[in-house]
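Problem: given the chain below (180 residues), write out its structure.
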Amino acid sequence: MKAEKYEDPVAGIYLRPMGYEDTDRIVRWRNSDAVRRNFVYQELFTRQSHESWIRNMVETGKVVQMIICEREKDTPVGSVYIRDIDRRHGKAEYGIFIGEEAARGRGIGTAAARLMLEYCFREEKLHRVYLRAFASNIRAIRSYEKAGFVREGLLRDDVCIDGEYRDMVWMAAICPEGGR
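Solution.
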């Protein structure tokens, strides 16, 4: 992926491929309460587990993960990814987190989602990109809608976190040109 193709000058960000050099940053971000509480997978990350993720998922093509960078200072602020890539059916699951607190609430997540959708449809030739979000995460759901995702359903009591069942919103974006 060429990062210069996936940038948003208005939001002041670009996407670049994630590498091993990002491990410590990803581990720190993912282990922060502000990020971790919005994920179904709540376990703490380690350097070893993240490097295993890169080897077994990213390097094998099962996952595409990018770092969101602010253009002005060339500073990493978060990550977007697609996982469970199903090439036969042209679909994958989307995920995002803004790791740097100062970057939250500024529209960076919405811009990064738009860029990642563009990448998914153009480069990966996917037809559908879907996501799951906690129904209580209204801010994220609004951001996804602004980026082009549409609510498709509510999964009641779908996951159990800390002994409490939580609802999930199911959303998807379909390639405007039909994909493939």
